[in-house]
Each structure stands twice: as C-alpha cells, then as structure tokens.
Design goal:
It comes from Bacteroides clarus YIT 12056. Pfam families: Cytidylate_kin2. The chain is α/β, with parallel strands linked by helices. The chain has one domain: Rossmann fold (3-Layer(aba) Sandwich), CATH 3.40.50. Helix content is 51%, strand content 11%. The chain is built from nine helices and five strands; from the N terminus they run βαβαααβαβααβαα. The chain has a five-stranded parallel beta sheet, with helices on both faces.
Length: 209
C-alpha cells in the first residue's frame, strides 16, 4: 500500500507560514520544500538559478497567444533581453515537474508555488492556508527584516498581490479563499506552536496517519 502523502501550504507574507511548515515537516518526519525548489528546478533543467528566482511566484506579464498555447511576455524596445528567452510559464512547468517528481517519490511538504493545484489529482494531499492579523504580520516582518512598520506594510501588500496573481493565474482558483483549501487558519489566534499542533492533528485525522 502506498502511504506517501503531501502537505501543501499557502500563506500570507508575515503569517509565519514557512516556520509553521518547517516545524510541521519535522513533526511528521517528511521533507520540507520552499525556496529549495528553485535550486532543484535549476538543476533539473540545467537553466540558470536566476531565471527561477526572477519568476518565483510571479504570474506571466503581458499575455499573448503564443506557439503551442504557450504565453510569452512582450518584448520591448526592439531588443530581446535574456529574461525573455524563457517565459514564466515555461519555468512554472519545469518547477511543476519537479514538484510532481518529488511527490511521487516520497512524502513531503511544499510551501507556495501552486503545489496544491499541481498535485490536485493526488488523493493523499492536505491543502492548508495560513493567514495572520495585520498587526502580527507587521511585527514579524519588522523583526525578520529589520525594517520600519511602513516598509513592512508595503512589503506585505506587494507580496500578497503578487502571490494572489500568481496563484489565481496558474490554478484558476482563488488564493486565500476557504473553498480552495481543506483548512484555513489564522496563526495569530493560537500562536505559531499551537497552530502547528492544530494543523498536525488535522493532517493526521484527514490522512488517517
């Protein structure tokens, strides 16, 4: 019997989603992937890591109907900069293949990058979205990045907009909407460690671990 399973976490910036994901992965004894996917996608494709970093959780910009149904960014100023040689869509496909390959080999936890949509046909998936109060998010970002409250709020708003556009564009679902996930939770209510415990219990019950 195949006992492999996958946990996918969507998160607001500053909600503690990555920290929660790391702690959950340890408790469940499974591998954790967030930014690590960029390295793996780079290695798998032989493409420069910089391509994936620039496209990371960003939807394609300036969509035109391309060859074979691909969507390419517009090329401006009559030149073709290196970043336009590969569309964000092509990079998304490479990263998606890496996510599917990992999920087929072992149990793992993915943070962001539309993993819940990419693995939508996997029957042993748990999809979770983590939010937090605006105040808690600002405090956490100020602490993590040593920035002002105004800078934290600006960073937060930009990240939320970018993540929502990316997720909605590739998944055709709504980022952060309850109907999109199995569980949505506000980490401000219980705090990080209690949120981890709550989600762990939910995962174990859902998957009968």
């Amino acid at each position: 019997m195949d006992n492999k399973f996958v946990v996918n976490i969507g998160r607001q910036l500053g909600s503690g989603g990555r920290e929660i994901g790391e702690k959950l992965a340890v408790r469940l004894g499974i591998d954790f992937y967030d930014k690590e996917l960029i390295n793996l996608a780079s290695e798998e494709s032989g493409l420069c890591r910089e391509f994936f970093e620039k496209a990371d959780e960003k939807a394609s910009q300036g969509i035109i109907g391309g060859l074979f149904g691909m969507r390419f960014p517009f090329i401006s100023d009559g030149a073709m900069p290196a970043t336009n040689c590969l569309s964000n869509d092509a990079l998304f496909k490479v990263q998606s293949d890496v996510i599917r390959k990992l999920a087929s080999e072992k149990s793992c936890l993915f943070v962001g990058r539309c993993a819940d949509y990419i693995l939508r046909d996997n029957p042993r998936c748990v999809n979770i979205f983590i939010s937090a109060s605006r105040e808690d998010r600002i405090v956490r970002l100020c602490r993590l990045h040593s920035i002002s409250e105004n800078a934290a709020e600006e960073k937060m708003n930009k990240a939320d907009k970018r993540r929502a556009e990316y997720y909605n564009y590739y998944s055709y679902k709504t980022w952060g909407a309850a109907a999109t996930y199995h569980l949505c939770i506000d980490s401000s209510v219980l705090g990080i460690d209690e949120t981890v415990s709550y989600i762990e219990e939910f995962i174990r019950k859902k998957l009968k671990l």
